[in-house]
Request: fold
Amino acid sequence: MTNTLNLFIKITPSKLPENAKKFIAANFNKAKIVYIDKIKDEYEIKLSNGTYINFDKNGEWNYISSDDNVIRENILPKNIAGRVKNIMKKYKNAYIFEINKRINFYRVRLSNSLDLCISHKGNILA
Reply:
């Protein structure tokens, strides 16, 4: 019988894939890692600034959310960041608080309840 429980395993930052370490250093250099949970081949990280990031086994992020801080659009590929930035210009004080990277699109949630789905080519899907 195999163990099918999805147990959280606490790990240290040194055990993260190199891509994840580089991403955090480049985009969240002022925040400290509060905890890292490893579940199978994925990593869930909480930073001291209230940001949560999920990484796959290769250290590529697939989810970012923040309770307290604005998520900068430059985390997204340039074509998608440009689309999001143009949309946010239309709404005063709107900011990104959650990004989901999916197989065919990015889901970007804004503080004004706008929920954007943008293809990898930069086309708005919803």
About this structure: The first strand starts at residue 9 and ends at 10. The chain is about 15% helix and 35% strand. The two ends are 44 Å apart (CA to CA).
